[in-house]
Every structure is written in C-alpha cells, then in structure tokens.
From TrEMBL:
InterPro entries xrefs: rRNA_ssu_MeTfrase_G (IPR003682), SAM-dependent_MTases_sf (IPR029063)
Keyword rRNA processing assigned: yes
Organism listed in the record: Trichocoleus desertorum GB2-A4
Pfam families cross-referenced by the UniProt entry: GidB
GO MF annotation list: methyltransferase activity
Enzyme class: transferase
Function: Specifically methylates the N7 position of a guanine in 16S rRNA.
Top-level taxonomic group: Bacteria
One example of a Gene Ontology biological process annotation: methylation
Protein family: Belongs to the methyltransferase superfamily. RNA methyltransferase RsmG family.
PANTHER family: S-ADENOSYL-L-METHIONINE-DEPENDENT METHYLTRANSFERASES SUPERFAMILY PROTEIN (PTHR31760)
UniProt subcellular location: Cytoplasm
Name of the protein: Ribosomal RNA small subunit methyltransferase G
Length: 260
C-alpha cells in the first residue's frame, strides 16, 4: 500500500501515520456496530474508498517534500495556494473544515496526513460527532475539533464564517448545494474541494454561475481513477474570489430544496 500512496499521491506515510490509519479502520469497524457509519468495511475497499479517496483530494496541498500532484497541474494556474502546510506560511493556523463528515471522511485522514492543519469535523448528527470526538482522542489527534450543527447555520455564525482556508465536502449533496455550504465558510482566497464521482463538462457549465453568485470560481477540476477498482473520480477545486453575499447559505433545507 505504501508504494501506491507514493506512486499515486506521492505521499509517504510515516510508520506512526500508518499505525493511525490502521487503528482508524479498527475503530470505525467497532463504531459501526452501533452507528451506521459506513457500508465499506472490507479492508482493501476501506483503504481505497475511504483512505485513498479522502487523501487524493488534498494531495495538491501536501508539503513539497511529502509530494502531492502539483506538477500534474498547469504551473501557470493560480490553483495551488501559497499556503497549506508548505514552507513560508503559518501552517499551525491553517484551518480546514470537513462539512458533513459522517464517519470522519475525508477529515480524519486529512488530519493524520497533515498534523499541522487544524481540522474541524462538522456533522448534523450528534451521535456520529460524539463518536468522532472519542475516536480523535483515542488516536491522539490533537489537531481535530468537532462540531454538531447544520452547515446552513454554521455558515452564518461569525466565528465560522470566512474563517477557513480549506473546506472539504464529500457525499453530502449536489455540487451547487456543496458550494453553498462551503464558500461562506472560506476566507478570501480559501479553497473548497468538492469530491465527486462522474462529472461532465455540462455540469461544470451549470455550476459556474452558482459558484459565482456565492463569491467563488472554479479553479481546477481533477479527474482520476481509483487505484484498485478503477472507479472514476473528480475533484472540483473552488476558490473564493469575493465575499459571499450575506443571504448565503440560505435557511436550513433551502439549499437542497431549491439549489442555485
Ligand atoms: N463525508 C462522509 C463520507 O464521504 O463518507 C459522510 C457522507 S454521508 C453520506 C453525509 C453526511 O452529511 C451525514 O453524516 C449527514 O449527517 C451529514 N449532513 C448532511 N447534510 C448536512 C448539513 N446540512 N449540515 C451538516 N451535516 C450534514
């Protein structure tokens, strides 16, 4: 597996990080007995669809020496941020939020891979968040905090609005709903990673005006296939280019019922 990390994400986990990922798997299986955290429990499927899939979306933000996919992108693009856990910045103040984290994906693998990021796990289900808090303590992940709330409410709270450098969101809703949850939470120049499966140029065209309305722009779209089952994946990288108008996010349930 280490060879696959290295080849596909150019990330080399330390033995401590490998142990944390292994322990994460065991703890999620234990938690699954009481909570409906995931249907993916077979080890290689868990590795591919939860661990690898979580990390491929943030690989462009990894430290230079840790790898990442930077040179696979057009170097003239402004997509890659001048911050993250790279040099010359303030990595310990790099704030990340995983919106609708569920069983902790992609936020927990991100917190393991990037221990200098401050990762907030947000979910509307109290039981899941209580479990994740215990899990983070067991794994000694001091860079994780948890939050029980709806994304629509959190986006209107002064302590969270425009407070994050990076927002991650996987399997929570349509792309425009995810954009409405994520963009209000970002600082100017912050980025959101929308994890998608299949994705088309038509969908990009339809999403662009919604993202613009929220003060964002589509910075890059990365296509890849998963390393074992060759499933198609896309990551949409949104950049916040202007303040999000105060009416967004709209009230609870409205983004999903009346998507932009
Ligand atoms: N992100 C995880 C993953 O990819 O495995 C979990 C995905 S699960 C299908 C969706 C999660 O989003 C659920 O745990 C649900 O409680 C949470 N969720 C849905 N809408 C939400 C909202 N508006 N605010 C906060 N959490 C939300």
């Amino acid at each position: 597996m280490i060879a696959v990390w290295q080849k596909t994400l150019r990330w080399q986990p330390t033995s401590h990080q490998q142990q944390q990922l292994q322990r994460l798997y065991e703890l999620i299986l234990e938690g699954n007995r009481q909570l409906n955290l995931t249907r993916i429990t077979e080890p290689s499927e868990f590795w591919e669809k939860h661990l690898w899939d979580s990390l491929r979306g943030i690989a462009p933000f990894f430290k230079e020496e840790g790898g990442g996919m930077k040179d696979e992108f057009d170097s003239s693009s402004s997509f890659i941020p001048p911050y993250g856990s790279g040099e010359g910045v303030h990595p310990s103040s790099f704030r990340v939020i995983d919106i609708g984290t569920g069983g902790g994906f992609p936020g927990i693998p991100a917190a393991i891979a990037c221990p200098d990021w401050q990762v907030t796990l947000l979910d509307s289900t109290q039981k899941k968040v209580t479990f994740l808090q215990t899990l983070a303590t067991t794994l000694e992940l001091e860079n994780i905090t948890t939050l029980v709330d709806r994304a629509e409410q959190v986006g209107q709270l002064p302590e969270h609005r425009e407070a994050y450098d990076l927002a991650l969101i996987r399997a929570v809703g349509s792309a425009s709903v995810c954009a409405e949850y994520a963009l209000p939470l970002l600082k100017l120049e912050g980025q959101a990673v929308l994890y998608r499966g299949q994705w088309t140029a038509e969908e990009t065209g339809a999403l662009r005006p919604a993202v613009a309305q929220l003060g964002g722009a589509i910075a890059a779209i990365e296509e890849c296939s998963t390393p074992v089952s060759q499933g198609m994946r896309h990551c949409l990288y949104l950049r916040k280019v202007a303040p999000t108008p105060s009416e967004f996010p709209r009230a609870i349930g409205v983004p999903a019922k009346q998507p932009l």
